[in-house]
Structure formats: structure tokens, C-alpha cells
Amino acid sequence: MTEPTTTIILIEGDQQIRRFVRRELQGEGMTVFEAESGAQGLTEAVTRKADLLIVELTLPDRDGVDVIRDVRDWSEMPIIVLSAKDAEADKVAAFNAGADDYLTKPFGVAELMARVKVHLKRRNRSGHSDSPVVHFGIATVDLATRQVTRNGKSVHLTPTEYRLLVVLVRHAGRVLSLRQLLTDVWGPGRLDHTHYLRIYMGNLRHKLERDATRPEHLVTVVGIGYGLMGAR
Fold first, then answer.
1. Rounded to the nearest 10 degrees, what angle do helices 38-47 and 64-72 cross at?
2. Which burial class, exposed, middle or buried, applies to 161 when counting CB atoms under 10 A from its CB (0-12, 13-18, 19+)?
3. Phi-psi region for residue 200, left (φ > 0), alpha (ψ -120 to 50) or beta?
4. Closest by alpha carbon to 15, among 30, 31, 36?
5. Labelling 164: which of 92, 148, 194, 204 has CA 20 to 30 A away?
6. Which ranges of the sequence are annotated as binding DNA (predicted)?
7. pTM for the whole thing?
């Protein structure tokens, strides 16, 4: 039986560095899909079943930090930053966006490969599988394209409704506390505004449930919080 191939997405604007890193990864038996821009890299990340992402922060079309945030909307794959930026603020921004590791240029091949292998081992142990598309009931959420549909028809969500839905989707099957939801969606300064959650959960139910008065998926657990159940 053939062993599954490890797939890496490499987003790097410098062609020479891209070729060099690709050659080293391929030498370890990994499949590498290259991208020279953030937009191209996101397309590759969505269409390939990747195990790990390597990204430069300085890209020709957008900031690599924004690319990391976009990927984190739908994927928990390990993300390693490979960048010439070595300021603490840049590293903090990357980690806050969702990066798992940060390697500054110039870098050693042995160190890069060691970090890649460590993150791949952790991912394999977790058994985690990413998919940007989530279905529940009559609703479908594509986190990569930020499209939400109900019975195949596009549904308009406000930015806050969408942020709340993303948090619920990323923790599907779990009941999230009011505190966690308020912090993730509105920030730590709004922990006493529990009425926000009642209003926005009601909005989501009206837009996405078969019967908003009897929600099957966007559920309330009295005294604890809310959760998205039955997603696949």
C-alpha cells in the first residue's frame, strides 16, 4: 500500500528562494505547490489538501499576515513564516494572526527541515483534517470564499454575524461559553454584553435554520453558552 504524500504550500515572492526550498522539501519526498503571491497561495491552499504552509510576509500583492488570517478562518494546518523581517513586532503580528513558527532569512536548511518535520509530526498525531466547506442542515459555509448559502441560495450576513458563525464553525460539536464567544467576536471589553449574543444568534437562526423557533444546529445550552451541532 502506497504511503500518502506530504503536501506543502510554499508562498514566496523570490523565485530563487522558492526553487531552493522546493528542492529541499522534494528531496525529503514531499509534494510542493508554489505560489509567488498571496492570492495564488490562498488558491493553492484551498484547492490542495495541504499538510503545512510556508509563507513569506512580504508578498507582491498583500501582507503575509493577512494571508495567515485568511487561512486560519478555515484551517488549522501548521503555518511556518519564512521572512527577512526580524523585528519583534513583525513576529508578534504573525503569531497573533495564527502562525505556528517563524524563521528569519538567511536560514539554515537543516533548521527549516527540522521545524517542518516537528510540525508535521504534531499534526499527524492530532489526526486533524481540514476542509473549508462545512454543511449543517440546509446551510453550507465555505470559509475559504466566505460564502454562506441556505438551500443553495446565497445568504447575506453582516460582518459580526459572519464572525460569530466562523467561531461556531471552527469549534463545531462543542458548546462555547458566553465569555469565549464574546471575547472572540467582540473582544475582552464586552464580556458583560450577553444580550449581543442573544440578538446575533437569533439572526443566524432566522437566516440558516429550517425553523428558527426550533433550532436543530445553532443550539443554546442554558447556563453555559451556544454551539453548532451536526456539522459535517
1. 20
2. buried
3. alpha
4. 36
5. 92
6. 131-230
7. 0.65
